[in-house]
Request: fold
Amino acid sequence: MKIVGLEEHFVVPEVLDAWRALDVPWRDDPALRVAAQETYSCRLVDLDRTRLAAMDATGLDVQVLSLSPPGLQILERADAVALQRVTNDQLSEAVRAHPERLQGLAALATQDPARAVDELERAITKLGLNGAMLLGRTRENSLVDTDCWPIFEAAEALNAPLYLHPQTPPAAVRDAYYRVDDPMVSSGLALFGIGWHYDTGVQVLRLILSGVFDRFPNLQLIVGHWGEVVLFYLERIENLGVLAKLERPLIEYFRNNVFITPGGMYSQRYLRWTIETVGVERVLFATDYPYVPDPPGGARGFLEGAELSEADREKIASGSWDQLCARIQRTAPRRISLT
Reply:
């Protein structure tokens, strides 16, 4: 059984340097501090032996690489635009060096949507990457802003999936909702504890409720961590779709436009809930390398131990991802202007 992981992170030295050179308050992002720690950064920058050995140890056949958060979205516009090309070129080189083991999701400078569109098309048609990784906010700006919609238009035209990854909630939100006496606990609560997941789930809902998927009905979004909390409240929030006058019931956007991965959360209970809610065809796999320790038996052990038919196990492990990639349009399409 081939197993593909979709939330597998890397970083290039140039981006690490740009993160470390940021001014306050951006360099105080807890996610930046984590990624820049040598414990993680040495594994993030390695795209060869150490990474391949870790994949072998956990039973992962393919990593789909993506730039670690806080990504390019935390940078100044000029730096982000310059570094998207640097990042994607190095990513492409790594994939070419290990074509059977590595794939890639492009990093995009969403500070400049027009340049991001150009880079997405280059990444898909020239570099052979399989989509892009996005964060919900670019500094103070949101992907919901219509300035960013050309990125969605281009992704739909290319049949290229977009992975929406968590990021640190804004400082004001961290102070209002996640601060406790211990600063370390505050950071954990705001990030991997629950803040990341609430933040990303809200961003997914905002995209749906703002009409992105009505405007681009074939756009495919991937979210990790079993749907970033939202799947567990779909029945509660269904009426929001009515208020927003969406074209479809809200749950249908998840069943037709959103893929779900575990993002390194190895829970058989959450796997069962996700399949019951959106269907096994919408579930992909991800380990969140290098941030999440392997479970007993590794990633392979988790899938092999799941109560699934062999056909469904194959879909989650790699089959559905392979089908999604097979539909990617590798020639630049003609797009209709949104203006």
Notes: The chain is about 50% helix and 10% strand. The chain has a mean pLDDT of 94. The two ends are 46 Å apart (CA to CA). The first helix runs from residue 13 to 20.
